[in-house]
Amino acid sequence: MSDTRMATVQPAPSTQTPQPHAPVRPVQFRGGGFAPRGARWVGALVFVLLLALAELGTRQGWISNLTLPRPSDVLATLQELYASGLLWTHVSVSLSRLVVGAALGASVGIGVGLMIGLFSYVRAGLVPLVAALFPIPKIALLPLFVIWFGIDEASKYALIAFGTFTPTVVATYGAVDNVDRTLIRMGQSFNLSWLSIVRKIVLPGAMPGILSGLRISLAIAIILLVAAEMLGAEHGIGAYILEAGSLYDLERLFAGVAILSILGVLVSSLIGLVERRLLRWRG
Fold first, then answer.
1. Does 234 map to a domain?
2. CA 251 to CA 246: how far, in whole Å?
């Protein structure tokens, strides 16, 4: 039997040169959570463009002055209103009515909404009532409030308060329902009291929804303010607009509408400021 020698096969030398490692590129952070970016100039630019188009259209005759006055004429009317002192007279009266009525409606609405969200028997008793009151057009109730409270300030306060109350209730108990139940169970597992869970978990978790509801409620309050001031009011933005409309004075009419728009922007900015203060924990 002949010896068989096994040849050891050596691997052929590699002809490829080693490649250097690619440079490590940082991964872009994508966890912003859809946080909005601050670009306030965009909103101002949109307003300026719209006013410029309206000014150009009315000056060139593309838009009839009988349907839309020139923005420059409206601005001149606002300046005259300010110089005469009537601007502050109308705005101060309207602001007092808005603040009193909206404060009453929103505060009671938040309280009732929290009770509905936290107590089952209150929910069972009041949710059907709120559902029945919510779709009623509040402006249609103005004659009834005049009969009940008179034509003076009380009827205006009542209309604004009632119009603010129902959307605030719905937004508040909806926000309480949307609080993460895992956080509540976690608090219960740490033996937190009921009051501590409400104060430290439920209220902070529901606050974004409550503030969003307040935006809608205050917008409704401004609409009802104008409607209330068009009935038996000597001063106020609504009374000013009604007088301008009866005289077909478009410059004064649009000046009143501009005041309402500015008021709405200021109210929205105020809610935004409150959101930034109370919701800083969201990051």
1. yes
2. 13
The whole domain housing 209 covers 83-282
Tell me, yes or no, whether 218 lies in a domain: yes
pTM: 0.79
Residue 132 belongs to domain with CATH number:
1.10.3720.10
Q: Is residue 67 part of a domain?
A: no
Nearest to 188 by CA among 204, 172, 176, 200: 200
- Domains: count for the chain: 1
pLDDT at residue number 178:
92
Phi/psi for 150 (5° steps) reads 90, 175
Tokens 């409030």 correspond to: 145
**Listed residue (207, 228, 234, 211) closest to 161, CA to CA:** 228
Give the per-residue pLDDT at 231: 81
pLDDT at site 258? 92
Query: Can you point out the beta strands (E) in the chain?
Result: none
Question: In 32-71, which positions are buried (b, 16+ CB within 10 angstroms) versus exposed (e)?
Answer: eeeeeeeeeeeeeeeeeeeeeebbeebeeeebeeeeebbb
Q: How many CB atoms lie within 10 A of CB 11?
A: 5
